[in-house]
Write a structure and sequence with these properties.
Blueprint lengths: L6 H11 L7 H8 L3 H10 L4 H18 L5 H7 L5 H12 L3 H5 L3
């Protein structure tokens, strides 16, 4: 997978790893076959740090999961690698400005 990967490749790897453990920059770089510094440089060229990419990926995934009918905040929290649903709720509020339940009930 060496070469220039679009951000989607990194996001996919992060998404796959989240339920198991926090997807480190070392893990992601290794999976795409590039040095960590190269991954960091590519992200910087896109105006992101690795931690910002993980947070952005978590936010997008959380919104997608909460849009599915019947999705519970605790289940979404686990899918995103949070062991404590209240930590997920705080992060979600930081990302979106609303609680997971308010987001789910917005329409």
């Amino acid at each position: 997978m060496a070469g220039t990967q679009p951000l989607g490749v990194y996001k996919k790897l992060i998404t796959e790893r989240l339920p198991v453990c926090y997807p480190t920059v070392d893990y992601t770089a290794h999976q795409v076959g590039i040095p960590v510094r190269t991954l960091q440089r590519r992200l910087r060229e896109n105006g992101l740090s690795y931690s910002e990419l993980v947070e952005k990926t978590r936010c997008e995934l959380a919104c997608r999961l909460l849009d599915q009918s019947g999705a519970k905040a605790a289940g979404v929290a686990r899918a995103l690698g949070y062991t404590d649903p209240s930590s997920f709720s705080r992060a979600f509020r930081r990302w979106t400005g609303m609680s997971p339940s308010a987001y789910r009930n917005r329409n």
